Amino acid sequence: MQSETNKAVDHLKGQYLAALQRENMLRASFEKQKQEANKLNESAIEYSILKRDLDTNRTLYEGLLEKLKEAGVTAGLKSNNFRIINAARVPTSPSEPNIPRNLAFALVLGIVSGVGLAFMLENMDNTVRTPEQATALSLLPSLGMIPLGSKSASYGGTGKRLALTASKEVVETVTQVRPQSQMAESYRALRTSLLLSNLGAPPKVIMITSARPQEGKTTTSINTAIVLAQKGVRVLLIDADLRRPSIHKTLGMGPRSGLSNVLTGSATVQQTITTSPILPNLFIMPAGTPPPNPAELLASSNMRDLIMELREQYDHIVIDTPPTLSVTDAVVLSPRADATILVIRSGHTTKQALRRSRDILMQVNAHVAGVLLNAVDLTSPDYYYYYEYQGKYGAYYQEEAPGDGKEVEPKAV
After folding, report:
1. Distance of CA 15 to CAs 6, 18, 22, 59, 242, Å?
2. Contact of 176 with 224, CB cutoff 8 Å
3. Is residue 257 scored above 70 in pLDDT?
4. Range of the domain at 191
5. Cβ atoms of 172 and 222 closer than 8 Å
6. Total tally of structural domains belonging to the chain
7. Whose CA is closest to 398, among 150, 231, 179, 226?
């Protein structure tokens, strides 16, 4: 009975495989017929278009031919009553315009106008564009510069976000997703400058702020925390922007308790800190529930005690704060940080805003490590020397290993 059962099963299995093979053949034949039908439809459409063009050209030709015949008949019916006495002579040179005179006048006018326009634009431009300008205006060291990204598609319905050139990856986590890019290398250079900014031990508590909104402080905070965690040390990223928090949205974390809940006593530190999905040794403390008095919370003794407690648990603490000229949150928190990074946006931050933010931080004895120039357009004339260097030598260090399937980063981002 077992043998007969096995034979029956094998027989049915053979029938099933044969039926499955016929089904696949029929399906392939169906797809082929469907493709041929689509090609036939395309040919029919193309035929209709060509036929319509033929009819149009034929109608136009017949109309032109009719008008040509009418013109010939009309010319034959008309007679003229004039005759040529003396044939006109062709001049050897034009009387107007005087090309040499006009070229000389245009050259002088162009030089004068160009020089005047350049001086006028230079005087009207009141923004900081180069690290040298930032250092001269603020009397603070330059920690580096971050290249400008490009506009990507809408993200989450909140508008457009910056991305790497020739890529759809946003710049908030570029140091992790594109470690060979020029932008990631700039953040690693920032890490080196930051760790060497203090004599003796490197800074533990690092506060990142900006002069005005939309200058890239949150992006700098996230990437700084990532490059510090890539060294293998424990890093905590704190979102201290209690008014408009964004780190949890950028890292794909849902609403949860955070810094404000710890300061008000409604949650513990262990309940608010979570491991980042990017690196196992990178920890995140979101902003939490927006409080009615964020500046008072950040200036309270609870915040001081919290920072002292976290110093013992983590090697580095990166704190993202609001702009200094908009609110006082970053100002009251800056004296408790070992190093403060002032982020400014190239071509966006004004000279007065840079000086004012520097003065505000210095008045509270903040440990300002330096100025970081963000969103630098390396193709502008101000960075021609740097762009030339990147075009000649930068690609050697930015190319991926052959055969890894990854695209090569552009020479200059």
Report:
1. 14, 5, 10, 65, 69
2. no
3. yes
4. 136-396
5. yes
6. 1
7. 179
Alpha-carbon distance 98 to 226, whole Å?
67
Write the CA distances from 357 to 247, 299, 371, integer angstroms. Answer: 23, 19, 11
Q: What is the pTM of this model?
A: 0.64
The 10 Å CB-count burial string (b at 16+, else e) for 207-245 is: bbbbbbeebbbbbbbbbbbbbbbbeeeebbbbbbbbeeb
Asked whether residue 340 is assigned to any structural domain, the reply reads yes
Beta-carbon neighbour count of residue 204 at 10 Å?
A: 17
Which has the closest alpha carbon to 247: 172, 146, 341, 179? 172
Instruction: Summarize pLDDT for 123-169 with one digit per residue, the tens.
Output: 777 888 888 889 998 999 999 889 886 444 344 434 445 544 434 44
Neighbours of 412 (CB within 10 A): 19
At 236, which CATH number?
3.40.50.300
Q: For residue range 323-378, what is the model confidence (pLDDT) as tens digits? A: 999 899 999 999 999 999 999 998 888 999 999 999 999 999 999 999 999 988 87
Q: What's the CA dihedral at 240, 206, 210, 132 to 10 degrees?
A: -170
Check if the beta carbon of residue 169 is closer than 8 Å to that of residue 278: no
Q: Does residue 251 form part of some domain?
A: yes
Round to whole Å and give the CA distance between 361 and 321. Answer: 13
CB-side neighbour CA atoms (13 Å) of 407: 10
Q: State both tokens at 80.
A: 């003229």
pLDDT digits (tens, 9 = 90+) for 62-104: 999 999 888 877 776 665 667 778 888 888 877 788 888 899 9
Q: Please say whether the beta carbons of 143 and 194 come within 8 A.
A: yes
pLDDT of residue 154: 40
DSSP 303-327: HHHHHHHHHTT-SEEEEE---TTT-
Place of tokens 């319905």: 157
Does residue 413 lie within any of the structural domains? Answer: no
Answer yes or no: is 131 within a domain: no
Burial class (CB within 10 angstroms; exposed 0-12, middle 13-18, buried 19+) of 116: exposed
